[in-house]
């Protein structure tokens, strides 16, 4: 569904990605794990058209999307939830959600999407008329993901959804990722929290200083102590 081939990205003289390749197939949750500065965010920004690659190709449903403007990539159904949530604090939950569907013309599609978000996030339904700024960190993260779901995603790119959240909320976020995947929306999940990412994904890629060091089924990576210690900072 999504295929990254030999992608190289530079910031001036710094090479952030050294020809990485990865793939997300239908119905998969794929994790991209690695330490701070490894190149995870750069990978997502390249996919959504925010960062121009120096070399390589990105195919979505067989079509190259490199060089396409961001709004075209959104229209194709590739929806990015950036790190740090970036919700509108002075808009209500409903208004925030509707911002996600601004480019969808069909009212039925918008109301179906809203219905689906309410099912996945009952907390947002309870708080539908509250201002975004009054929500807790975990609820704001749910709102950011809910807003992305309003755009009728064919594939979701999630950047560090667990960042800064209390452990019990991290588990809730993990469960919602699984709920979204059950709706048939594949997910590319970027996480520093490797354990969480491996627990909720089918496959994972380990990235280190702009290189993919390995990829495997997540369950196998979770079981492998050496890999955990070497790449994932788990002691
Ligand atoms: P984090 O979890 O901190 O976001 P990451 O794995 O997502 O880390 P990136 O943000 O993709 O890593 O950064 C990869 C490399 O590119 C790092 O060395 C970083 O310092 C560098 N980098 C990222 N953005 C820029 C930029 N706008 N200008 C210059 N260098 C950058």
Account of the protein in words:
38% of the residues lie in helices and 26% in strands. The protein is built from ten helices and ten strands. The longest helix has 16 residues, at 167-182. The radius of gyration is 17 Å and the shape is globular. The termini are far apart. The structure holds adenosine-5'-triphosphate. Adenosine-5'-triphosphate binds at residues 11, 14, 16, 34, 36-42, 192. Adenosine-5'-triphosphate binds next to strand 2 and helix 1. InterPro entries: AAA+_ATPase, ABC_transporter-like_ATP-bd, ABC_transporter-like_CS, BCAA_Transport_ATP-bd_LivF, P-loop_NTPase. Belongs to the ABC transporter superfamily. This is ABC transporter ATP-binding protein.
- Poorly predicted runs of 5 or more residues: none
Percent helix range: 25-40%
Average pLDDT score: 92
Structural class: alpha/beta
Q: In what range is the share of β-strand residues? A: 25-35%
Distance between the termini: 35 Å
Bound molecules: adenosine-5'-triphosphate
Strand order of the largest sheet: 6-7-8-3-9-10
Task: Please summarize the sheet with the most strands.
Answer: 6 strands, mixed
Please tell me what the overall shape is. globular
- Helix-strand pattern: EEEHEEHEHHHHEHEHEEHH
**Cα-atom Rg, whole angstroms?**
17 Å
């Amino acid at each position: 569904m999504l295929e990254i081939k030999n992608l190289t990205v530079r910031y001036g003289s710094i090479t952030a990605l050294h020809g990485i390749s990865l793939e997300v197939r239908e119905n998969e949750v794929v994790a991209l794990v690695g330490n701070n500065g490894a190149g995870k965010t750069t990978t997502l920004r390249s996919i959504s058209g925010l960062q121009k690659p120096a070399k390589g190709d990105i195919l979505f449903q067989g079509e190259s999307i490199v060089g396409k403007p961001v709004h075209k990539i959104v229209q194709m159904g590739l929806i990015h939830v950036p790190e740090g949530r970036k919700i509108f604090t002075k808009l209500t939950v409903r208004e925030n959600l509707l911002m996600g569907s601004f480019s969808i013309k069909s009212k039925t599609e918008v109301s179906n999407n809203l219905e689906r978000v309410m099912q996945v996030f009952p907390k947002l339904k309870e708080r539908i008329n509250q201002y975004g700024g009054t929500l807790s960190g975990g609820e704001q993260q749910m709102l950011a993901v809910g807003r992305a779901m309003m755009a009728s995603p064919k594939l979701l790119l999630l950047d560090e959804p667990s960042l800064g959240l209390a452990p019990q909320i991290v588990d809730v976020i993990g469960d919602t990722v699984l709920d979204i995947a059950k709706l048939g929306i594949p997910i590319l999940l970027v996480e520093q929290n490797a354990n969480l990412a491996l627990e909720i994904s089918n496959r994972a890629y380990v990235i280190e200083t702009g290189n993919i060091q390995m990829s495997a089924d997540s369950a196998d990576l979770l079981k492998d102590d050496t890999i955990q210690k070497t790449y994932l900072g788990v002691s």
